[in-house]
Amino acid sequence: GKSKPENTAAYGLTVPKSPHLETSTRSRPQT
């Protein structure tokens, strides 16, 4: 899920267990 930014965004929202993904999504949503 780290390959595609859009996938990471959805993955981060689905899995709040990874604060790293959440931060990355908030920093640059769908870059």
Automatic annotation (TrEMBL):
Source taxon at top rank: Eukaryota
Stretch list, region Disordered: 1-31
Protein name according to UniProt: Uncharacterized protein
Species annotation: Nymphaea colorata (pocket water lily)
